[in-house]
Specification:
The chain is mainly α. 72% of the residues lie in helices and 0% in strands.
């Protein structure tokens, strides 16, 4: 796959994920957050197992460890996102989630010692301003839904980072399969612990969860993992940030969400922050230090992806 095709694939992923905000909002009318996650990741785990069944015979503990880390980050991100969606609007949830793009370079700095250029610092500052305009109430407090959406951005940032790191070493199908199984198991454990085992979904709820499980989860994460073999994790993050634009667009068109001037200003600032923080930096800024990073098994590998 050429780089151009990989970028196009990531754009397709963002459009589908944008529709996922609307599907999640509809599903929440008849299902709890953990029920939605358990069903969507069950579908993802089953479909990914069927896709990668021929590769199971060569699976190793390193691939499993990498997939588990991706799955934990994915579960945390989606749990915080869908719970936060109960207390805020789909468009605000989408734009606050997009802040994961600003976080990815900082994670790369902490783990891989990649330098953060001035664009990254400026982007981070602008993102804080954008979040303040978009989400702070009159008494300068952050709503529960907005706070959870911000925390979910941290989870997605780690998921994108882990994907970019591990896909250079291991098979995309195996990584995705283990990731989905991990997220499914965690979702079921929390769902049972909360006593939410009785399902009463509507027809719209079933269709929404089917979209989330088959299209937004299985197809999108398989495509994302494959495409990130050819696109740097930071550049992939800026492309994936367009999910917020599609999420807002679908919320307006399908849910009739009202757009306010404050929402427009806040979203615009966040978009500018996302773009600035991920503009092509100089080769000096992008060059990581020669510090080896341990794999999930505790061993040290060779050259890391840039």
């Amino acid at each position: 796959m050429k780089r151009g095709m990989a970028i196009a694939g990531l754009i397709v992923v963002t459009a589908i994920w944008g529709g996922g905000f609307v599907a999640s909002d509809i599903a929440l009318n008849s299902l709890t957050p953990m029920q939605i996650m358990a069903i969507r990741f069950l579908l993802g785990a089953v479909l990914m197992s069927l896709i990668s069944v021929r590769e199971f015979r060569n699976i190793n503990i390193k691939e499993i460890g990498a997939g588990v880390l991706m799955g934990i980050a994915l579960f945390a991100a989606f749990a915080l996102q869908i719970i936060g969606l109960q207390y805020t609007t789909p468009s605000k949830n989408a734009f606050l989630t997009a802040l994961n793009v600003v976080m990815v370079p900082f994670i790369a700095f902490l783990v891989l010692r990649k330098r953060i250029g001035w664009r990254g610092v400026l982007g981070a500052c602008l993102s804080v301003v954008g979040v303040a305009v978009l989400s702070l109430n009159g008494n300068m407090t952050l709503g529960l839904g907005d706070a959870l959406s911000l925390l979910c951005a941290v989870g997605f940032a780690f998921q994108i980072f882990f994907t970019g790191l591990f896909v250079q070493r291991y098979r995309a199908t195996i990584l995705n399969c283990v990731q989905m199984v991990t997220a499914f198991v965690l979702s079921v454990v929390v769902m049972v612990a909360m006593g939410q085992v009785h399902l009463t979904p509507t027809t719209d709820g079933w269709w929404s969860v089917l979209y989330l499980g088959v299209v937004s989860t299985t197809i999108c994460y398989l495509l994302q993992t494959a495409c990130q073999q050819y696109v740097d994790e930071t550049k992939a993050a800026i492309i994936l940030s367009m999910e917020s634009v599609f999420g807002t667009l679908f919320s307006i068109l399908l849910l009739g969400e009202v757009v306010t001037p404050r929402m427009i200003v806040g979203c615009a600032i966040i978009l500018v922050a996302v773009v600035i923080s991920n503009l092509a930096a100089s080769s000096e800024d992008e060059q990581p230090a020669d510090t080896p990073v341990p794999e999930p098994s505790g061993e040290v590998s060779g050259r890391l992806p840039v």
